[in-house]
Amino acid sequence: MASWAYSQLGRWDDAVEEGQKELSIAEEFSDNSMISFAAWIISIAYTSKGDLGRAIEYGELAVQKAPTPGDKAWAQGPLAWAWCQAGEPHRGVEVLATLVPMHRAARFVPGVIHATVWLGEGYWLAGEYDKARQTLEELLEMAERCGMRFVLGSAHRFLGEIALKTNPTQAGEPLAAPHFEQSIAILREIKAENELALACAGYGRLRKQQGNIAEAREYLTKALEIFERLGVRIARATEDGSAGEAGLVTAPLARALAGLDPDRPVAIYACGPTPMMRAVATLAAPHGRPCWVSLEPVMGCGMGGCYSCVVRVRQPDGQARYVRSCLSGPVFDSRKVVWEELVH
Ligand code: FES
C-alpha cells in the first residue's frame, strides 16, 4: 500500500521500489496471492509514470499468478487501466465494465470505487463521453461518502476534460471550470502532484480556449513546473523566445533524438499545428522512432455523421483512403498519414 500511496503522490520511482520489495518477499515465500498483489501494485506505479510497456508486463504477471477469483478480480483492474492508457481503451473498458458489478456483488467498496474510476477514464479515452460522464458522476457520490479524496480529485478532472471536449464553446452546461477548480483544490491539499499537474494542464487549456491567455500561461506553466519537480525532463521552445529556447521545437527534439541510445525504445507523440507535426514526423523517420500525431481537422459532429473531418491515411493493403478522424483517430501513426493533402 505504501507503493500505491507513492504513486498517488507522483513519486513513481519510490512506488516501484516499494512494490519490488514486496514482490521479492512474496517470491521468497512462494505466496502467489502476494506476488499477484505486488505485481499489480507495481503495474499501477508504472501506469502512473507513463511507462506502459512495463505496466502491462506487471499487470499480466499479476493476473497470471492470481490464485483465486478474488485475486484475479483485483489484478485485472490495473491491467485494464494500463490498456486504456496504452491506446486500447475499448479492451480495458470491456474488462472494467465486468469488474464493477462483480465487486459490487461482493460488497467490496474499494474494488468498486477503483474499477469505477478506471472505467470512467476508459470511457473518456474511448470517446464514449455520455457513459464516461454518467460513470464519473456516480463515482463522485461514492467517493464523497467514503472520503476518498484522490478519487474525487481525479473524477473532477475527468469531468472537466469531458465538459471541455463535448462543449468546446463553454457557453452553457456542462461547464469544465467548476470541475477543474475543485480538482485542483483537492489535489493541491492532498499533495497528489502528478494528478495536480494534469488538472492544472486541463484548466490551462480551458482558459486558452476561452481566450484568457494570461491565466492559460499561468496554469500551463504550473503544470510544467510540477512535472519537472517530479523528475520529468522538459525542453521548451517558442518561436519568439518568450519561453525556453527561441526557435522551433524540432531543434531540441533533433538533439534529443541524436543523443538517444538506439536500443532504448522511445516513441514520439505530437500535437499542435499541422506543419509542426509534419516536421516532427519527418525527423522521427530517419531515427527509426515510431511517431504518433494527433490530427485536429474541423470536427462538425464528432460522431461520424458529417464527414467534415476526413483525412487520407494509408491502410494495411498499402492504399491511401479517406477516414473520419473523429472515429478512426484523432491519433494516427505519422507514417500512415498522407501529409501532402493536409490543409495547414
Ligand atoms: S466530425 Fe463529423 S464525421 Fe467526423
Name the features.
344 residues, mainly alpha, Serine Threonine Protein Phosphatase 5, Tetratricopeptide repeat, 2 domains, three-stranded mixed beta sheet, two-stranded parallel ribbon, 15 helices, 7% strand, globular, binds FE2/S2 (inorganic) cluster
Describe the structure.
The structure is a single chain. The chain has helices at 2-9, 12-28, 32-49, 52-65, 69-85, 89-105, 109-125, 129-146, 149-166, 177-189, 193-209, 213-229, 250-258, 274-284, 325-328; strands at residues 237-238, 245-246, 268-271, 291-294, 310-314, 320-324, 331-333. By secondary structure, the protein is mostly helical. The protein folds into two domains: 2-238, Tetratricopeptide repeat domain (Serine Threonine Protein Phosphatase 5, Tetratricopeptide repeat, Alpha Horseshoe), CATH 1.25.40; 248-341, no CATH class. The strands form three sheets. Strands 3-4-7 form a three-stranded mixed sheet, with helices on one face. A two-stranded parallel sheet has the order 1-2. Helix 14 links the parallel strand 3 and strand 4. Helix 1 packs parallel to helix 3 (32-49), helix 7 (109-125) runs antiparallel to helix 8 and helix 11 runs antiparallel to helix 12. The mean pLDDT is 90. FE2/S2 (inorganic) cluster is lined by residues 299-302, 304-309, 324, 326. Residues 299-302, 304-309, 324, 326 line the site of FE2/S2 (inorganic) cluster.
